[in-house]
Design goal:
- There is one protein chain.
- This protein is mainly α.
- The protein has six helices and two strands.
- It has one domain: Orthogonal Bundle (Cytochrome Bc1 Complex, Chain D, domain 2), CATH 1.10.760.
- It is 59% helix and 3% strand.
- The structure holds heme C.
């Protein structure tokens, strides 16, 4: 009986301490995104990501699909990084691993994701930047 209580409290403890994802727009990586990061992110975007995310081709969501990106932002950087790094099957198409940039490093992929969100945010309120 005692063991069951200990087990139950452990399960409870771990489910509560599980990190809640931070909206990507509120992460330090996003808020501190500087010119150097932008150069890295932009170059990956221009060679890979834009192919699908600029206009929403191959089942991807377009840059100006604000509702989609705002909801997606809530998944947090860690989860989104995993999706891009490993690839993701969407409802209407698939994103290849590393978003079609096979030679990209983890850092380059992270910056390209942050850059994509900078672009969508810019799109949403052009006067704010
Ligand atoms: C070949 C097309 C293609 C390319 C290239 C591509 N994507 Fe995607 N991307 C997709 C599809 C398809 C989805 C899934 C859409 C869905 O969830 O229905 C997706 C989803 C995403 C998501 C959301 C993932 C999630 O977990 O919800 C992010 C972030 C993303 N892409 C970023 C990128 C970045 C950054 C690059 C460049 C490094 C990139 N994509 C390149 C097709 C692409």
């Amino acid at each position: 009986m005692k063991r069951k209580i200990i087990l139950a409290s452990l399960v409870f403890f771990f489910s509560c301490s599980k990190n809640k994802s931070v909206n990507i727009y509120k992460t330090n990586q996003y808020l501190d995104f500087n010119e150097k990061d932008k150069i890295i992110g932009e170059s990956v975007w221009k060679t890979s990501c834009f192919r699908c995310h600029m206009h929403g081709t191959n089942g991807a969501n377009a840059l100006d699909d604000k509702e989609y990106w705002n909801t997606t932002a809530e998944k947090g950087l860690e989860d989104l990084f995993k999706s891009v790094w490993e690839g993701k099957y969407g409802e209407e198409g698939a994103m290849p691993p590393k978003g079609l940039c096979p030679s990209c490093s983890e850092d380059q992929i992270e910056k390209s994701i942050l850059y994509l969100f900078k672009l969508t945010e810019l799109n949403e309120s052009p006067d704010s930047l």
